[in-house]
Amino acid sequence: MNAALSIDGLEVVFDRFRALKGVSLEVKSGDSYGLVGESGSGKSTLLKAIAGLAPAASGTIAVNGKTLGTRRDKAFYREVQMVFQDPYGSLHPRQTVDRLLQEPLAIHGFADGEKRIQRALDEVGLGTGFRFRYAHQLSGGQRQRVAIARALILEPSILLLDEPTSALDASVQAEVLNLLEEIRRRRKLTFLMVSHDLAIVTHMCERLMVMQNGEAVENLTASQLIGHRVTKDYTRNLLRASEGFVRG
Amino acid sequence: MSGTLLEVDDLRVNFPTRTGLVQAVRGVSFSLGRERLGIVGESGSGKSQTGRAIMGLTPPQAEVTAKKLAFDGIDLLAAPARQRRALRGKRIAMILQDPKYSLDPVMSIGRQIVETLRTHEKVGKAEARDRALAMLEAVQIRDPARVFDLHPHEVSGGMGQRAMIAMMLIAGPEMMIADEPTSALDVTVQLDVLGILDKLVSERGMGLIFISHDLRLVSSFCDRVIVMYAGKVVEQLKASELRDAQHPYTRGLLNCMPRIGFERHPLPVLDRKPEWAA
């Protein structure tokens, strides 16, 4: 299978700070790929650079074989959509769900908006009863479902997920993770998912990259991580930490 | 039991709002000795309001009632504000979630620690400084003299949280309430901070109330766990017996988290029953 996303030697520099120091990565079409690391490791910056929200200083990003320029065109955003970490911050507080979902449709000139909105809401398990509510009338899990619906409404092939469940309660997290898995299976999507939680990444992704200080530490498959077949100390530390507190 | 520090019986916290009374805490009872007690629940379960009511930090519009709310024999609800102020920080301390928001942004870390100490004890400036430096060292800050003069925005999250622990421990409290003390930190830093907390709490024989949403973390750290749902305690159990939890909510909460090496697709989800909240 060909690569949905291939990144080569990507550098992102903010003023003089190098947030990404030459990261390369290839995600096959239909795969789910995880990025793990602590805060400041550059995992979110990598997602933002792909979406065009962070300036790439050098290196190339190619989506479905097409190398991207500095400006993203409309076609790019039909292919690639992003879901952000905080559903409290990523939805417009003064727009109804209906208005939120219409925006991308209007930008891309879709005529059958009515049908698409209903289908998108059904797909994320909200139903049309939520259509004319505001973000503050929804719970955290419902808001994240709206954010997912907004990303799906243009029928992209790649979803960028930036800690999609870290602001949610554990039981709601399980529901949203299940929803994401189901959507990926049904629509044959490619996921690139950022998380600080190794358990979530091994649950959702087949392959993953461990990052530290803007660099790739290690590329692993989920089964290598589960079997503790890791080569770098940093990854080993993360694994140990994820097992919880042990009284010394 | 002579070692009982805190007794809570039928604690209720109500918020009158325009749309009616919101009952955040609905009859919580427990007692705390010199031990580690975890309070676990999801958002809205009333776990933080329970901690705040004990500390006396409930917003003024809320009503706090209890059959008994006593710390070391002092009736906290009947105590005058002056007495409660003296208790706060001196004998009961509280660690909050995010050092970015809970430290004073315009005061150096050292001055904040010294301020806490000198509010509660009559000590000279030089001695206060020495004790603050010693405390910073006790929370494993490598270069205390440098950190003493830094402002909160100049330190990392883990360092800020250590500074907060230092500040809370300097007056030698007998009881500490830690409300999500490590949720804003990276996993590896989280373990360092918990290790420090663990050591200091056991060395000083303090009572600790550890409030968190993370059932597994709490059970690895505490002796006893209270599980809250919709303002009520649904289950109380020893941390070591978590596997034998009876209540479907506790079991569901344990089950629904992904775990490394346990493949389950889809993840089991909580089927919330209305009778849990009854």
UniProtKB/TrEMBL annotation, chain B:
<keyword id="KW-0547">Nucleotide-binding</keyword>
<feature type="domain" description="ABC transporter">
    <location>
        <begin position="6"/>
        <end position="255"/>
    </location>
</feature>
<dbReference type="InterPro" id="IPR050388">
    <property type="entry name" value="ABC_Ni/Peptide_Import"/>
</dbReference>
<keyword id="KW-0067">ATP-binding</keyword>
<protein>
    <submittedName>
        <fullName>Oligopeptide ABC transporter, ATP-binding protein</fullName>
    </submittedName>
</protein>
<keyword id="KW-0472">Membrane</keyword>
<comment type="similarity">
    <text>Belongs to the ABC transporter superfamily.</text>
</comment>
<dbReference type="InterPro" id="IPR027417">
    <property type="entry name" value="P-loop_NTPase"/>
</dbReference>
<keyword id="KW-0813">Transport</keyword>
<dbReference type="GO" id="GO:0055085">
    <property type="term" value="P:transmembrane transport"/>
</dbReference>
<dbReference type="Pfam" id="PF00005">
    <property type="entry name" value="ABC_tran"/>
</dbReference>
<keyword id="KW-1003">Cell membrane</keyword>
<dbReference type="GO" id="GO:0005524">
    <property type="term" value="F:ATP binding"/>
</dbReference>
<dbReference type="InterPro" id="IPR003593">
    <property type="entry name" value="AAA+_ATPase"/>
</dbReference>
<dbReference type="InterPro" id="IPR003439">
    <property type="entry name" value="ABC_transporter-like_ATP-bd"/>
</dbReference>
<dbReference type="GO" id="GO:0016887">
    <property type="term" value="F:ATP hydrolysis activity"/>
</dbReference>
<dbReference type="GO" id="GO:0005886">
    <property type="term" value="C:plasma membrane"/>
</dbReference>
